[in-house]
Amino acid sequence: DAGITQSPRHKVTETGTPVTLRCHQTENHRYMYWYRQDPGHGLRLIHYSYGVKDTDKGEVSDGYSVSRSKTEDFLLTLESATSSQTSVYFCAVDEGKGDNEQFFGPGTRLTVL
Amino acid sequence: AQSVTQLGSHVSVSEGALVLLRCNYSSSVPPYLFWYVQYPNQGLQLLLKYTSAATLVKGINGFEAEFKKSETSFHLTKPSAHMSDAAEYFCAVGGATNKLIFGTGTLLAVQP
């Protein structure tokens, strides 16, 4: 158990509003990831971080930004939410053992009306 | 570049029957391969992983997978399905970077 929590677990918002999702880990792992999960698409990487203030884009980064000011927290922001961003969002961490194994949080279900 | 293909988005088996979920990968470097399971309304949980040791990998809940380089495959099997195996299963490939590439998932249904 990598001690990953996500908040909120569920959120309903309206188109055009900003939304921030939080991922918190207790183990000080270097690598953190944000994915979205949609039917028929599996998990797609949005952004990832390889250290404090070090982040990079994944394959579906448009419309999302991230920040990591502390090792334990990785924030995902939707600057202006759209209905296409309705999804389940997962945070994951890599313990840094060199085998790419990732541990996942419980997810956040976001609905944009 | 790396990619994963999972054949069959839905698989249905009878309780007690063999489970076979297919995964083929593409990788320009020696791959790390993973199977994750997701139960309804939960996060992903690691079933098993291949990281260049034994080609037959045993995981939790009686599942195993065999790495076949010549076939670029990493199929997941279980000799006898149980009702509790009903879930979505994801294959993933890594090894080139610190990122994983996931397949689109296979939803396993187990019929009584």
Key attributes of the depicted protein:
heterodimer; A: 113 residues; mainly beta; seven-stranded mixed sheet; 58% strand; globular; B: 112 residues; five-stranded antiparallel sheet; 11 strands
Structure explained in plain terms:
The complex is a heterodimer of chains A (113) and B (112). With 113 residues, chain A is an all-beta fold. Chain A is built from no helices and 11 strands. In chain A, strands 2, 4, 5, 6, 9, 10 and 11 form a 7-stranded mixed beta sheet that branches. A 4-stranded antiparallel beta sheet of chain A has the order 1-3-8-7, with no helix packed on it. In chain A, β9 and β10 (102-104) form a beta hairpin. Chain A is globular and about 40 Å long. The mean pLDDT of chain A is 94. With 112 residues, chain B is mainly beta. In chain B, strands 2, 4, 5, 9, 10 and 11 form a 6-stranded mixed beta sheet that branches. A 5-stranded antiparallel beta sheet of chain B has the order 1-3-8-7-6, with no helix packed on it. The radius of gyration of chain B is 13 Å and the shape is globular. The mean pLDDT of chain B is 94. The chains are: A mainly beta (113), B mainly beta (112). The A-B interface holds A 31, 33, 35, 40-45, 48, 50, 58, 90, 92, 94, 99-107 and B 6, 9, 32, 34, 36, 42-46, 49, 51, 90, 94-95, 98-100, 102-105.
